[in-house]
Structure formats: C-alpha cells, structure tokens
Amino acid sequence: MRAKQALPEAEWAGSGRKPPAAPGHGTLANTLYRRLRDDIAGGRLDPGARLDEQEIADRHGCSRTPVREAFRLLASERLVELRGRQGAVVRSISAQTLIEMFQVMGELEGLCARLAARRSTPAQNAALQAIHARLEAASGDTADAFYDINAEFHEAIYEAAHNAFLAEETRRLRNRVAAYRRRVTHMPTRVEDTLREHAEIMAAILARDPEAAHRAMRAHLTLLGENLLDLIAGLD
C-alpha cells in the first residue's frame, strides 16, 4: 500500500498569491481541492471533463477518501457536478447563465476598481503599473501566458480595494468563469483590446476617479459584449 503524503500548497492560478484558506486548511483533502480548483481556473481541466477519483488518488499517493472530500468542496463552489456512480465532472455553464455571470462579474470588479481608486497605496499603484508593463511586453507571447499576467492585474485591483470580503467573493465567481475568460483571450483583437481597456482602468485608479474606474472596469467585463457573444456562438 502506498504511503499517504501531503502535497505542497498550490499557488492561486495566475495571481502569484496563496489561495484563500478553505475550512480545515492544511488537510490533504483541502490541498487536493485547491490543486484541482487551480487546474479548473487555469483551464487545464475543461468544462465537461470527468475527474477520475482513482486516478487522482493514485497520482497523489493517497486513498480515495480525501479525493471524495475534495470533490465535495469543489461541488460546494459549483466548480464540479457530482453524478453519483459516474463521479465528478467539471461543471459546464449554459450560454444564458454565462452572460448573466459576466454581468455580475462586471459589477463586482467594477466595485473593486471604484474602491481601489479611493484606497490604493502608492506601492499598490506602482505594482499595478509594473504588471501592466509586463502585460504589454507579453502581448506577443501565447494567449495563455498573456492571460496569466492579465489575472495578476485584476488580482492587484482586488487587493487595492482593501475589502477582503469583496475580494473573496469576486475571486469565487472569477474561478467559476475562468475557463471561459481564458478562451476569450484567444479571440482576434482580444489582446489589443485588453491592453487598451486596462490602460483606461489604471488611469482612472491613478487619477483617484472612482466613477471612471468603475465605469471602465464594468465596460471591460461587459464589453466582452460582442466577443462573448461570438464565443457563445462557437460553443453551440
């Protein structure tokens, strides 16, 4: 019988930060939960993908019990769907629900930007500018590499809002739509549009203009407008 061993703590996908602690933080089940959550958010597990309980247990040298508990935690976040004997499947999102979620995401991130314009520190402003510079430099790289830095930009704004509850809820919803946000990055002109939209958001935050920051961030998400409709059409 293979010995159980704890896994190293996974980093939150694309942010360079530790993920928020789940209940029972530090247990093998929660470490597996965070690892699988990051794989879903990072697009390494696509919507509809089946999670093989035994394969995951074998890969991590543990019994199936912590894997089942990790699945339950993922289901509570609505990241996976439990199908009895069929096991766990990464949850897919309908086109209408996806549009609605992006609308809510726009308001949540818009509020983060509004608060960041009021509360960000000089160090946080400098960090935001540095991330944007890295994003510009990565515009010729792969869409996935660009997306990862893009996620850092948004994470920096969550932090600059100085509202831990808002940041946690925004991340929770972002994780649910992350696979779709990543796909949008692959669409034509999305990289160029993102750079322009981020520059507007950053300028409003640096200018301490909460209304403009909220408006620019909300437009950045809901603008997914035509791009998102195109994406949804491609999913049919």
TrEMBL record:
Origin superkingdom: Bacteria
SMART domains: FCD, HTH_GNTR
A molecular function (GO) term: DNA binding
Listed SUPFAM superfamilies: GntR ligand-binding domain-like, Winged helix' DNA-binding domain
Keyword field contains Electron transport: no
Region listing for Disordered, in residue ranges: 1-26
Record Pfam families: FCD, GntR
Keyword terms, alphabetized: DNA-binding, Transcription, Transcription regulation
Designated name of the protein: DNA-binding GntR family transcriptional regulator
Organism, as annotated: Roseococcus suduntuyensis
Lineage, highest ranks first: Bacteria, Pseudomonadati, Pseudomonadota, Alphaproteobacteria, Acetobacterales
